[in-house]
Design a protein that fits this description.
Bound molecules: beta-D-glucopyranose
Number of strands: 12
Strand order of the largest sheet: 7-8-6-9
Structural class: alpha/beta
Family: Belongs to the bacterial solute-binding protein 1 family.
CATH architecture of the largest domain: 3-Layer(aba) Sandwich
Keywords: Signal, Transport
Strand content: 5-15%
Pfam families: SBP_bac_8
CATH superfamily of the largest domain: Periplasmic binding protein-like II
Radius of gyration: 21 Å
Distance between the termini: 31 Å
Helix content: 40-55%
Number of helices: 17
Low-confidence stretches: 1-11, 16-50
InterPro entries: SBP
Mean pLDDT: 90
Protein name: Extracellular solute-binding protein
Number of domains: 2
Order of helices and strands: HEHEHEHHHEEEHHEHHHEHEEEHHHEHH
Shape: globular
Length: 446
């Protein structure tokens, strides 16, 4: 495989993975180092005839800590250890929802040719700069030809695993973004029927009713980091202005869609008065506990929020919480995925191959997804473990008239413009200036 020299477009793009400015740059984590000094190009590995003693320790980085998917990743690692007891696995988590801190750590380690064995990474456009910089290995044969992966995977995840035309990563889940979760008791007490809210702007009146008739706030939200507000904005954009506009905006056509971009910002601004007062200091998981405790009626989030409900005793789907498609977006599945890429200079190439093969298996996806609140990218994973909510998400996915990739979660937008979008959102949540944010969003793609 070819390499691109430093300073070319590839590394420039990679430099945009974290960007400066915005609260994304506020990492407090330290750079992890691998335990081995061996530097190998992952391109020359083979699993033929290897003995278990050949395995170097595997280092895997992710941001699934606490309520944000920890039970799911623990179940995944348990399954892997059962299958490969001889491979030492070193988990090296970097907390921070939406990858707030991990992106920074990974960019630095990859640029220093000191990557972990693999890490939690959105596939698709997010990995494009890594591919352009020649940092990822082609795993079409070593991984994707195993476990019937090429036949069993849905087309979308398979395509997202090939950001530059070759397989470089293994998607493990599909999350949905255009959800409106709600506390059932609160909305019932308020006399609000979430299914009857037909467009995002109508949610304002519903939240007013909640606040008039209950002690709860209309909407749980976190503005501590920009990504949940960018998420909310993209859900509003999709629901109010439709998927063609959404997709054009994801392609960077901000100026051409001025009215929609600004209109969606204004709607988010209209929601603000119904947010929990501490929105600036709580994380997305802390905001979600307000739905669980009945302190908030609604929550717009990816269905990782449902993974958290599932781990909560006495908070049952259908009785205590439920979900509708975000108003105006019924029939559309706005999605993102998590995947595990194979970097070159891999500290443990053989162990990494095994780990990635495992992530692509039925067993791994059956263990991980029910706890994560996501559905599997393989089509042959038995549904029994998934429970009624995720089974409904699977049906919604299957019956959806369109599946649109997430802007905020890196599938549709490359790291550099995405950093610009997050910076614009960080400014928005401090001054709530629609015109200024629109200009900054436009700049993000220039
Ligand atoms: C990831 C999810 C994660 C969520 C919140 C998303 O970008 O895809 O796996 O649960 O961020 O941190």
């Amino acid at each position: 495989m070819k390499t691109v020299t430093a300073g070319t477009i590839g590394l420039t793009g990679l430099a945009g993975c974290t960007g400066g400015g915005g609260s994304e740059a506020t990492t407090t984590t330290t750079d992890a180092t691998t335990e081995t000094t061996e530097s190998m190009d992952g391109g020359d590995t083979t699993t033929e005839g290897e003995s278990s003693t050949d395995y170097k320790p595997l280092e895997v980085q992710h941001w699934w800590t606490g309520g944000d998917g920890n039970k799911a990743v623990t179940a995944l690692f348990e399954g892997f250890k059962q299958k490969y007891p001889d491979i030492k696995l070193k988990e090296n988590p970097v907390p921070g929802g939406g990858g707030t801190n991990l992106h920074t750590v990974i960019k630095k380690r990859v640029l220093n040719n000191n990557p972990p064995s693999s890490w939690q990474a959105w596939p698709g456009k997010n990995l494009q700069p890594f591919v352009e910089a020649g940092k990822l290995k082609d795993i079409g044969d070593s991984v994707w030809s195993k476990n019937g992966m090429k036949d069993a995977y849905l087309k979308g995840p398979k395509d997202a695993a090939k950001p530059g035309g070759k397989f470089v990563t293994v998607p493990i889940n599909i999350h949905r973004l255009n959800n409106l979760f709600y506390n059932k008791k609160v909305v019932e007490k308020a006399g609000v029927d979430p299914a009857s809210i037909s467009k995002p702007s109508d949610l304002v009146a519903a939240m007013k009713k909640v606040e008039n008739n209950t002690d709860a706030v209309g909407m749980a939200h976190s503005t501590k980091h920009p990504w949940p507000t960018l998420d909310l904005w993209e859900a509003v954009l999709l629901g109010e202005y439709g998927r063609n506009t959404y997709q054009a905006v994801a392609e960077g056509k901000i100026a051409e869609n001025q009215q929609a971009v600004k209109g969606a910002l204004q709607t988010v601004k209209d929601y603000k008065q119904y947010f929990n007062e501490d929105n600036g200091s709580v994380s997305w998981t802390e905001a979600n506990t307000k739905v669980i405790n009945g302190e908030a009626a609604f929550y717009q989030q990816g269905d990782w929020a449902a993974g958290m409900y599932r781990g909560q005793d006495g908070f049952e789907f259908g009785t205590h919480w439920d979900q509708v498609s975000f108003p105006g977006s019924k029939g559309v599945y706005a999605f993102n995925m998590d995947s595990f890429p194979f970097p070159k200079n891999n500290p443990s190439p053989k162990a990494t191959e095994k780990f990635l093969q495992y992530c692509g298996s039925v067993d791994a996806q059956e263990r991980f997804n029910p706890k994560k609140g996501s559905i599997p990218p393989r089509t042959d994973v038995p549904k029994d473990e998934f429970g009624p909510f995720l089974q409904r998400q699977m049906d919604d996915f299957k019956n959806s008239k369109a599946q649109v990739p997430s802007i905020t979660h890196g599938l549709a937008v490359a790291p550099e413009p995405l950093t610009g979008m997050k910076d614009a959102t960080a400014t928005f949540t401090s001054d709530w200036n629609v015109d200024k944010t629109f200009q900054q969003m436009k700049q993000a793609f220039n």
